[in-house]
Structures are given as structure tokens and as C-alpha cells.
Design a protein that fits this description.
By secondary structure, this protein is α/β, with parallel strands linked by helices. It has 14 helices and 16 strands. The strands form four sheets. A seven-stranded mixed β-sheet has the order 4-12-11-10-7-5-6, sandwiched between helices. A four-stranded mixed β-sheet has the order 1-2-3-15. Strands 13-14-16 form a three-stranded antiparallel β-sheet, covered by helices on one side. The longest helix has 22 residues, at 322-343. The relative contact order is 0.17. Residues 22, 24, 60, 115-117, 120, 143-145, 156-157, 205, 209-210, 238, 240-241, 265, 275, 400 line the site of ligand KE4.
Length: 424
Amino acid sequence: MTLNNQAAFDAAQKLFAGGVNSPVRAFKSVGGTPPFIDRGEGGYLYDIEGKRYIDFVQSWGPLILGHANQSVIDAVVRTAKKGLSFGAPTLLESELAELILSIYDCLDKLRFVSTGTEAVMTALRLARGATGRDLIVKFRGCYHGHSDSLLVEAGSGAATFGAPSSLGVPSDFAKLTLVAEYNDLASVQKLFDERGGAIACVVIEPIAGNMGLVPADEPFLQGLRALCDRHGALLIFDEVMSGFRAALNGALGWTRVRPDIVTFGKVIGGGMSVAALGAKREIIDNLSPIGKVYQAGTLSGNPVAMAAGVATLRTLIDTPNIYDTLGARAQRLVGGFAAAAREKNIALQTAVRGSMFGFFFSGKPVRDFDGALASDAARFAAFHGAMLKRGVYLAPSQFETGFISTQTSEAMIDEAIAAARSAP
Ligand code: KE4
């Protein structure tokens, strides 16, 4: 029997909660049946029914070189033939770390882990261990993975399903997480005024991608830096999504502020399970085995995954003006969406940071989570379905970000704009 998406989804519901292994893939907030993907080729996805889609999700960011990039695949196959995992040091870990540190020159050392969740969870523990303090500050609408301390007023899938604060997180954990408003320095100042001496860190997406795309204002980031310095707290930039996406040096290409800790994921693994945290040596050397902050992982620094990351970053580093090209295509895409909306007298707000793009069906610019929540999610859902029918694969949630890869051609941009113009 040739499987179709609906039959595959029905069968998957018997195997997984919601039929998926990550909630946002279930298309619950936009409706319809998620395509089951058979393969990716360059800028395209193909589902099991043979339908082709222009891919603007790119596995939620990692595939900046498009699907099945030959140099990445060759590196993975070559490395896999030598063995999949050793649980011992390899030169590939050092090679990928040297590439990342050569770009993020405000950091001295890294620790590789397997997911962004693990990277940010470890960054919090490191900040708490390094400062001897327990409280953390996060922002409503920012998503930093699904560790307990961070599933408080979170974005991404948590916001999508209206459960920004998850069940199962003990209130004793949640009370150690203080929540402030994005782009609202006064809301952070208040927390520091009240409890500054007990705050270990402020964790932020410096370019928020999990409430839709909402960049932080420079004065706001400068203010966070000043508050952390004044009160002895550490500033953590969560660049799991924006790292090597907003620019070669991610958000650092858009702000003069330098954090104490940076977390990475997605692009640095090129589609395989790689994430990391980095800091100055006096901070990160608190990690075991040197320091007393414990962290470990069976597949941390996995050589096959490292090889994918090395091949990806080498290509990004060696391709001149790549982010200018990706940014120009992102601007042209959302400019086309905005023009299509104007033709229909629909208000659309757009944002671009390097290869990242976002849009909100809203009459006013979106600068924080309330602004994102106030946007017309129903219209987004209808637009998403109409675009999918026209072979354009957008993130299935208003609270996500879209991506341009090196394989997102000008012709694909034209096709996506035409689809937006013909969508009801
Ligand atoms: P992972 O544990 O999913 O590798 O990374 C967590 C994470 C941490 N920080 C930021 C800024 C992130 O965007 C993420 C994960 N992003 C979501 C999409 N917005 C992953 C997709 C999903 O949850 O299925």
C-alpha cells in the first residue's frame, strides 16, 4: 500500500504522543496533516506522496547549506566508515571548536553537548556554580529548550499550545526563574532592585526567534550588560538559533554587547546532533573535571556529528559575502509577502536578521511577546495552509522563524511570492 501523509500520521499517532517526536511538528496550531518527509534535496523537501516543497524551515535552522550538501555528506560518510562513536577525545572535536572560537572571539573555551536544551541547561548550572547564586532571569516568549528551569513563560512550541509554563515543573523549581519582558529594561531593573544579589544570570535570545522573529534593541542589550556587571550576574546569549544564522558571528554581528556565556546548536551540527556552550576560561573552567560543576554526555562531541559541523562551518567561513546574499533573499521574500498583503489590504509586519526572517499579521511592529500574542494567529494558520498547498513549506507556528539557505534560489523566492499573491 503506498502510504499517504494522512495514513502515515494516523499510524504514527499509535506510536507517539500526538504522532510526533517534537510537538510543533504536529501542525496543531495551523491545522492540516503534516507532510511525512521522504527526502531533502538542496532547497527542496519531498514528502512520501512525492509532493515537492520549497523549504523555509530547514529542520528549524540547521540546514543553512540546504539538504544533502555534498561536502557535508562526504564528510559524514568518510568519518562514519572509521567508526560511529568512541566516547574518547578526537581531533574532530578540536577542529570544530577552533572554528567556532575563531569566529566567536569573545570566548576562550567550549563544551560540546548534543542538544540546545542541554547547552542552555548546562549554561545555567555553570552560571549558578560560578556565582554561588540560585536565581535566573529569562524573558517571556523566549525559548531555551525544555529543561525545567526554562519552561516558564517560554516561546516556540510552549507558546504555540498556550502552555508557556509546562505541567511537571515543580513550583520549587519555577520560583527560581524570574521572568521579565523582552525589550523592557525597566522590567529587568525591577528584578535586580529586588533580588540582584541572588541572581546568577540573565539568559536571553539576543535575536528572539521563538515568539516569531523579534530582535532585541541595542539599548536594551546594553542595559542588560550594565545590570549584570553592576550586580555580579552573568549574561548568557542563547544563540542556538541565531548563531551562524544572523551573521557568521550570529547576534554578535548585530550588537556591540558581549556576553559571558554563549550557547550554540543547530547550524554548528549541520543537521546532526551538536550543541555547545562557550565562555571565558575563568568561567568555563568551573566545569568538571577541572571544576565542581558537573556535566557529561555519552555522545558529546560525536565524531560523525563533528564532521558534519566542520564541513558546514568551513563552507560558511570560506564563502565570501554569504550572509549578504542570504539576507538580500530574505528581504526580498518578506518584501514580496508584504506587497502581497498590501494588495489584499492586510497588515503585515516583517523582520530579517541575516538568513532569518519573520512576519506577523499585525497592524503594528512586534517588539515583545504580548505583541506577538496580539497578532492574528488565525490568519497565519490560513496563510500557512494556503502556502503549503502551493508547495511552500513555512514553519507551522506563528511563534517560529523562517530561514533562507544557500540553496534557496531567486527562482524559489519568486515562486514563494507568487504563492503568497495567489493565496486567499
Ligand atoms: P534543542 O534542544 O531543540 O536542540 O534546542 C533548544 C533550543 C534552545 N534555544 C533556542 C534559541 C532554540 O530555538 C531551541 C530550539 N528551537 C526549536 C524551534 N524554535 C526547535 C524545534 C522543536 O522544538 O521541535
